[in-house]
Amino acid sequence: MKPEVVLYKTLPDDLRARLDAHFTVTTIKGLTPEIVDEHADLFARAEGIIGSSCKVDDALLQKMPKLRAASTISVGYDNFDVDALNQRGIVLMHTPTVLTETVADTMMALVLSSARRVVEVAGRVKAGEWQRSIGPDWFGIDVHHKKMGILGMGRIGLALAQRAHHGFGMPILYNARRHHEEAETRFNAQYCDLDTLLQECDFLCISLPLTGQTHHMIGREQLAKMKPSAILINAGRGPVVDEQALIAALKDKTIHAAGLDVFEQEPLPADSELLKLPNVVALPHIGSATHETRYGMARDAVENLIAALAGKVEKNCVNPQVLR
Ligand code: DGY
Questions:
Q1: 106 CB near ligand 1 (under 6 Å)
Q2: Whole-prediction pTM
Q3: Which domains does the chain have, with CATH numbers?
């Protein structure tokens, strides 16, 4: 008999067929307590789950006594209670490599659009406000050769450094848990402590996962250390930045602007103060959202689950210690 798997995200047909070839798959619309209760028998039998953007906590795991592997269609795994998975010996798989370049593109898009006010002025053109040659009230600020500050030098940070340094001639400063030899060699990136990074950079690009250590890592105190001309870019996880402190800093012009792909609450509530600020570019968490990359992530997640339930994990595992 094939192992039972719960799928909580729609997959392209060919990937769904690949999953069906290995498992008995049931698709559900999410992992809310109501849906889980409605499918209690299925959850009691399931040995694998695959999907994204839903919380997998201890309460849910209690209802899945047979679960052996979880596969998230994302690099980030902050939706998972990893300690609870570890205690139960459940393998957690993710998609860390396939989205790197696409997310770095998104970050560069945020850098350019917030510095050059692309969204704002394009809106003005559409509104018929372009009546004569534009003046300084339409001008932005330069990106090229400004100081790029990267907070979190993982794969995405590195891909951003490549674009910024080689494409835009930007000196790279970075802060991370440890020195990154490759970034230093390839991009002459300068490691600095967080305070120096905040004080020196023209763009603060945050590419950090959400953990107990990174929650609200950038708050009022940190924003106050930035240059009034600096722009904050966040495409990691929303709660790494204290959103209320950011709103205050943008209103008070403590910093110049922000380009945000992630928020403390997603979807961003329609009445968020951020949406009222002209110096904010807000995107709907599109970091990896291209057809090619989302397909690649789904493909990797399917292969990850197949490998995990066959006991053949070689890569993409968040908690390899449970394999031992
Ligand atoms: C991820 O994979 O964690 C990203 O946030 C998706 O864009």
A1: no
A2: 0.96
A3: 4-97+292-322 (3.40.50.720), 99-282 (3.40.50.720)
